[in-house]
Amino acid sequence: MKRKDLLSIYSLTPDEIRELLDRTKLLKKWLKENVSHKPLDGKTLGMIFHKPSTRTRVTFEVGMYQLGGQALFLSGAEIQLGRGETVSDTALVLSRYLNGVVMRTFKQSDLEEFAQKATIPLINGLTDISHPCQVLSDIFTLEEKFDSIKGIKVAYVGDGNNVANSWLFGALKTGINLSIATPDNYSIDPDILKKAKALEGKSEGSFKIFTDPVKAVKEADVVYTDVWTSMGKESERLEREKVFRPYQVNWDLLKHASKDVLVMHCLPAHRDEEITSEVMDSKNSVIFDQAENRLHLQKSILEALLG
């Protein structure tokens, strides 16, 4: 993987994704075998977070430590960005102190502005439009569960949010057939959809968009969901709960999927809202395998960009 930044799966080639997945498998194996591997010794990762986080923060901090480097957490409220310093000026300054940055923020445009000015690698830790690290680690999780992921069917049910957007690009670039079911007015971002349609003819993967969750999950090998109300949308929560109720991942919905369907969720989950506890804690769930694999996949990203 030879590039400066990771802002979106859209910008990765299938070969680059393959390199990341293969390296992730090796790094996970080495960690389980207690193999010492410190390619980032003496290097520091800055972590600018405007949104709260459990998995993204912990896995990047632990990942840097395991690779021999260190991570510096920079809350958006505590650095000068929170007092009016421009994104560009912050990028120019931090480029002189750090070896790389993870940014978890609202606007994709802020991420892109930072990347344009910075002279060090930038990793997207989540924006309102994109969550590449999550979906790349999800794809790695599926590679652990299937002999081959090419041609499997993944059904995403729920809000057309940053995870759904990233799944579009991830599926197309890895040969997965993706079905997405969202309510009217909560569908995929039009610009993302336009890019996905342009990619589809050049890729082994495919996608279909539905409003009916039953149609989307029919014979699916994997059913994926996320919260109905993402960060920044809290004022819409009551309305969203009404609209999304038919999209809950429960046993009634899963009976339309493959007999051995796997269930995924990027977490945090609002149990018994978008997914029932019975499904989440069942043998079909690989949700906590997903969470673990965030660490291993992100280590491969860190090694590729900062190594």
Automatic annotation (TrEMBL):
It is an enzyme of class 2 (transferase). Residues 150-304 form the Aspartate/ornithine carbamoyltransferase Asp/Orn-binding domain. Keywords: Cytoplasm, Transferase. Carbamoyl phosphate binds at S53, T54, R55, T56, Q80, R104, H131, P132, C133, Q134, C266, L267, R294. It is found in: Cytoplasm. One of its GO terms (molecular function) is amino acid binding. Pathway: Amino-acid biosynthesis; L-arginine biosynthesis; L-arginine from L-ornithine and carbamoyl phosphate: step 1/3. Residues 4-144 form the Aspartate/ornithine carbamoyltransferase carbamoyl-P binding domain. GO terms for biological process: citrulline biosynthetic process; L-arginine biosynthetic process via ornithine. GO terms for cellular component: cytoplasm. It catalyses: carbamoyl phosphate + L-ornithine = L-citrulline + phosphate + H(+). Pfam families: OTCace, OTCace_N. InterPro entries: Asp/Orn_carbamoyltranf_P-bd, Asp/Orn_carbamoylTrfase, Asp/Orn_carbamoylTrfase_sf, Asp_carbamoyltransf_Asp/Orn-bd, Orn/put_carbamltrans, OTCase_ArgI. Its EC number is 2.1.3.3. L-ornithine binds at N162, D226, S230, M231. Belongs to the aspartate/ornithine carbamoyltransferase superfamily. OTCase family. HAMAP family: OTCase (MF_01109). NCBIfam families: orni_carb_tr (TIGR00658), PRK00779.1 (NF001986). This is Ornithine carbamoyltransferase.
